[in-house]
Write a structure and sequence with these properties.
By secondary structure, the chain is mainly beta. About 0% of the residues lie in helices and about 55% in strands.
Amino acid sequence: MGPKFKVGDSVMVKKEVYFMFHDFTIRRGEVGHVVEVDMHLINVFGECVYDYIVLIRGVPLFFYEDEIEKYP
């Protein structure tokens, strides 16, 4: 199965996330745009997970698929 989101999609943050590197918190409900999708194989059967770089407040931030949802 492919990624849930694609580059250019608008997404909303599902839960508050603190980013130590940038020293700020992204709150639940904030909206951003997917700028990169990374795939990582997790086993020899070809199963994979997807990570997303999302631009929020002008900063590219890393999110797991379960931390964001599609924004209408």
